Amino acid sequence: MSMYTIHCHLTASEPVRRHLWYLMAGSNTPLVNNLLKLVSQHPDFETWQRKGDISKSSVEALCEPLKETYPGQPGRFYSSAILRVTYTYKSWLALQKNRRYRLEGKQRWLHVVESDSELLHRSGSSIETLKYRAQDILVQLNVEQQTQKTSVTDISTITPEETPSSKNESLFPSLFRAYDSEDDILSRCAIAYLIKNGGKIPETEEDQEKFTQRVNSKREEIEQLEIELSARYPKGRDLTGEEFLETLAIATQQLSETVAQAREWNDKILTQPKFMPYPIIYGSSTDVRWRKTSKSRITVSFNGIDKYLKAADPEIKAWFKDHQEYPFRLHCDERQLPFFQRFLEDWQFYQANKETYPAGLLTLSSTLLGWREGEGKGDPWNVNRLALYCTFDTRLMTAEGTLDVQKEKSEKALKNLAKAKPDPRNHSTLDRLKNLPVRPSRTPYQGNPEILVGLRVGLTNPITAAVVNGRTGEVLTYRTPSTLLGDRYDLFNRHRHQQEQNALERHKYQKRGVTYQPSESELGKYVDRLLAKAIIELAQTYKAGSIVIPCLTHLREILASEIAARAEEKCPGSVEAQDNYAKEYRRKIHNWSYNRLISAICSKAEQLGIIVESGFQPYEGDSYQQAKDLAIAVYHSRQLALK
Q: How far, in Å, CA of 422 to CA of 415, rounded?
């Protein structure tokens, strides 16, 4: 599924904008802030932390008594607040759970590994004996894995540093289990030797200095994860600035009791405040009503909001009576207009055939009604602009994609009917899904499954592509940003220069204790779209069956390994020089928005029906080698899964 979001500005009369601002900023946003606080204070919060999840019903129960404190809102506004808090905490709890798993994995690794000299002293053996025993254990574990056919094992607690080779991923859980259950000292030392060396028996002697650096680096990673785990709970938006002023007064009048408290004060003071209220979430495709005026202008309204606005002000009520149309008019560019026209056509057809048209096949999926910050002075509803964000499934733009969505929804309805207490509404859902809307047809993309485009992310080059024949291992071509962008590579350099200038300005302001978060306009997003378009064209040129993206779960380690490799290459033999080089390199080369870039590539690929696969990016080799190895590893993994 490829979800795509477009936005446009909305215009409305001043009374409508004024009442909407008061409603969103004065009632809905404080409701969200209060809900966020109540969730963190709930008796079951520790249980939710362990699960890494929270249910919507739990937030609904907390919201019910708050409706008396924040009355007079449309029902969809209360639902939006519940969804906003649920989504926020689901994301935060999932991140915290992942961090705990990573922390446990790193702590476990650190507890097991020792230097070769320590292992030899504890086992009372020679290095040859230790290697011989390690080889026996490897053979034994491989035989057990083949016997049990456990080709896929949960390795969520093991970080990529402990699993440098994808073919050894399933080995590490077995090694750790064997270490815990083994009583023989020599065997435990041999297992620790294998864990330390990535499940392999090294041919060269251990470098004690590098081992010490590796252990120290692991301790730093553990310390960083512990800091992240102790991070404060999600906070709401301080629209009035009262919380900022309160924190500033406390920080200037008293000393912090702990380092954590000082860090919290610093974070609050340096965080750029958000003065826009939370947008309202309309999670259903039928929550937004579409119409066209006599002058062919597209207008919209929202479920439940007309009734509220009419009751809020006699002037608004008179406006509705005179105009007989929806209160919000769309303003968008020509590139987005066809999408909004599709939403209008879908709604008109749905209204004309409510009994038979499947709402689940409407192109529009969900919407957000919010405000975009403007410039100038005056009333906030006049300075800031109303905006509408529409999210839709790109598959529903074509007849073939609509058929795929219909099959998915039909299977889901049949599964629900098979439950012990089925919902009878699923019968009508199945009947409606038989009526497919008319959509334009598009020939599906057909690529060669043996040809893959492997993508590697990094600091110097945000993206490197390698077109590889997975079966033979032959590389057909390589691409970097300069070759992907061609004549538009100057935009890439301009964005890099803009990042560097913004970093210098930010550092200058931070030294003065002033918050400064400069905008990079839309240039970065535009460059990402150009790169994504070029990669898709590359895949089409070589008839690639799939595009392989790197898993960005452990991006910090990926970038750190690249910096360390460059530092070692530039300053061999000097740890201090390597540290200085790495520090200077980090200052000059700024992280790209890798998630945004990968999302743009995935969105483009899924729109055309190109398969997107993912795998762990290797640490060894240059950027070209890593892109090639990633593609080949995913191809072989796919072939093994088919057997």
A: 9
Distance CA 303, CA 285 (A): 11
Determine the longest span between alpha carbons in the chain, in angstroms: 95
> Per DSSP, which regions of 423-487 are E strands?
448-457, 463-469, 475-479
Q: What is the mean pLDDT of residues 226-254?
A: 75
Q: Are the beta carbons of 470 and 452 closer than 8 angstroms?
A: yes
Q: Which two tokens stand for residue 401?
A: 């994609």
| pLDDT tens by residue, 518-532 | 666 678 889 999 999
Angstrom CA distances, 416 to 131, 420, 586, stand at: 56, 9, 52
pLDDT tens by residue, 252-287: 777 776 766 676 666 666 666 678 899 999 988 899
Q: Which run of H or of E encompasses 630?
A: helix 623-642
- Joined together, the tokens standing for residue 623 give 């950027």
CB count in 10 Å sphere of residue 572: 9
**Range(s) for CATH 3.30.420 in the chain?**
448-642
Contact 189, 126 (CB under 8 A): no
Query: How far is residue 29's CA from residue 277's CA, in Å, rounded to a whole number?
Result: 6
634 contacts 452 by C-beta, under 8 angstroms: yes
Strands in 3-11's sheet, in edge-to-edge order, are 280-282, 364-372, 385-393, 3-11, 328-331, 298-302, 288-292
Spatial distance between the Cα atoms of 598 and 455, rounded to a whole number of angstroms: 9
Using the structure block, give the residue that is written with the tokens 């009035």: 240
Q: Are strands 328-331 and 298-302 parallel, antiparallel or unpaired?
A: antiparallel
DSSP type of residue 342: H
How far, in Å, CA of 90 to CA of 39, rounded?
A: 11
**Edge-to-edge strand ranges of the sheet holding 544-550:** 475-479, 463-469, 448-457, 544-550, 611-615
| Topology of the domain comprising 448-642 | Nucleotidyltransferase; domain 5 (3.30.420)
Please say whether the beta carbons of 456 and 601 come within 8 A: no
* pLDDT one-digit tens code per residue, 445-455: 889 999 999 99
Contacts (Cβ under 8 Å, ≥6 apart) of 231: none
